[in-house]
Amino acid sequence: MTQLRCENITVSFGGVVACNNISLEVPTGKIVGLIGPNGAGKTTLFNVLSRFQDHDSGHIYYRDQDIDRKKPHQMVELGMARTFQNINLFGEQSTLDNILIGAHHLIGNPFADMFSLPAARRTERSLVQRANEIAEMLHMQDELDTLVKNLPYGYRKRVELARALASQPELILLDEPVAGCNDEETDELRGIVQRLNRELGITIFLVEHDMSMVMNVCDYIYVINFGSNLADGTPAEVQANADVISAYLGEEHDDAA
Amino acid sequence: MVAAARTSAPIANRQAVAALKARFAQQNWIFAGVLFALLALVPLLPVVEGWMATQAALVIIYILAAQGVSVLTGHTGLVTVGHGGFLAIGAYTSALMSHYLGADLLSGMICGGLMAALIGCLLGLIFLRLAGAFMAIGTLGFAFFIGTIVNNVPIFNGRTGFSLPPNNLFGVIDIGDFGFYYVCLVTLALMTLFMYSLVRSGVGRAFKALRDAEKAAQSSGVNRLFYRTLAFTISAFITGVAGALNGHIVSFVSAEVYADIWYSVDILVAAIVGGSAMLFGPFIGGVFIVMVPFFFEELADFSFILKGIVLIGVLMLAPAGVADVAARPFRAMRQRALAQAGGATAREHGRTGGSPGGAE
């Protein structure tokens, strides 16, 4: 079954075509990666899929349902959460509050909620309970009451993941989950991503520059270049693909030499 | 390594944290209880005369108005320079009802609040795309718009204005200065209770999320249109209720005062000086705004200068307001206690024992 699919997505900003007829498929239960050189259109595509960016043509389907006209805030109700490339957290608030915001669509009637009616208080207690469990799963239970701005970088990445998890998603879009992390943090986040997939059955679609991360965790990889599909396949196939090597990995080698 | 070195916090720790939080909440309630008990005792002091009760009522009206501003500016991050407009809507709605229909204070307050809320809701929709300085300019324009209307539309009687019958509740004639003070105090208590509930609810979390990181809020399911409009509506309602009381306190409304921008400025200054993101902030701000001209009776113009100086000083030295500075030591104490109870000591060991570069 297909969790998320897009067909012939085209986005242009003025004269610049950021995405040109991109099509891809994220099967349910898999970890799928999206790679490509800088400026290939990865983040634009991500924003299209999470509905922050409108596309000029093409279609997006979530579980075969057309979501071309959905608003960004409607995505978590469908079961799709995302994280951001540059950590996007509520710094002046505690880890707990950051996680709870992820569960926003579960608060029920906002009018009952803002008057703290008994039903709303019960809901709130269960959400806090779940936030505690998520924090425990990501080894953050000691920092629940710490303000996020006081946490180290790798930690904040995990808070973002926890927030995404709090929405009880079927699919998480990860925009460069290990960008800026050191080796230890990368290892840890990689382990977490794999656990979410294997233990909770969450489908993962990730954009990443860190090749060790992509090649190790992904079941399937899409490569885009200059806003178009370049290749796709298993990590081994992609690594062996001549187009990919010349367009992407090849450049990297040239730079290094 | 940071996490690997750490053992899972025992459940006892989480329970200790929960107990501490319950204790802090209890302390907040006691503080609020003592505060309101003191406020309730004010008119009973033998030296307090009617005019003093009226001054105290004026303080409460400013606190209420500033609470309205704080919903929008403090909690949702939308700076409003035009809340005098909502104050005017509340004042005129209640005044017209009282003048023409003989409505009592309570129905005037409710209708004044609702009318302001309705306009606030529309304004929230119209200003959907505005942010930052543009929002401030938009709301300023709104205040001028309301000012022009009350100045020129015949029913509002322009600068001549109209006077109101003595304040009454449920038809009981003339509740007097002291009665009026208690009406204000009860209203403030109810609004403060509501604010307490609001800021701790999922709705309050959504407001703060929009304030701190709009995109992240949206991707977490916060409907920007709905919650911004809701914040505008709630904010306008509270300030509208304050406006209704403000008309009745002098039993007179006219465009002379309500068409002016000074109300908007005063309310905003009250909210910012006090601390607009804190429940206690408007209390300090309200006292400040009413007391300043009180001490400068002869030299009223100087009060504007002093307000300006204090505002600049607060923005430079304590941008989160006086209440924030006052609460800082208590907050630090609570954070330390929470950190200790939550097992952060384990983390300290983990950090110093682990690799030096590991933490960052």
Structure description:
The complex is a heterodimer of chains A (257) and B (360). Chain A is α/β, with parallel strands linked by helices and 257 residues long. Chain A has a domain at 2-79 and 169-256: Rossmann fold. Chain A has helices at 42-49, 75-78, 95-102, 110-114, 118-137, 153-166, 183-200, 211-217, 235-240, 242-256; strands spanning 2-13, 16-27, 31-35, 57-62, 65-66, 80-82, 171-175, 203-207, 220-225, 228-233. In chain A, the strands form two sheets. Chain A has a six-stranded mixed β-sheet with strand order 6-7-8-3-9-10, with helices on both faces. In chain A, strands 2-1-4-5 form a four-stranded antiparallel β-sheet, covered by helices on one side. In chain A, strand 1 (2-13) and strand 2 form a beta hairpin. In chain A, helix 3 runs parallel beside helix 6 and helix 5 (118-137) packs across helix 6. The longest helix of chain A has 20 residues, at 118-137. Chain A is globular and about 60 Å long. The N and C termini of chain A lie far apart (44 Å). The model of chain A is unreliable at 252-257 (pLDDT under 50). Chain B is an all-alpha fold. Chain B has a domain at 48-260. Chain B contains 15 helices and two strands. Chain B has a two-stranded antiparallel sheet with strand order 1-2. In chain B, helix 3 (83-101) crosses helix 11. The longest helix of chain B is centred in the first third of the chain and has 31 residues, at 11-41. The radius of gyration of chain B is 23 Å and the shape is globular. The N and C termini of chain B lie close together (11 Å). The interface between A and B is large, with 51 and 50 residues.
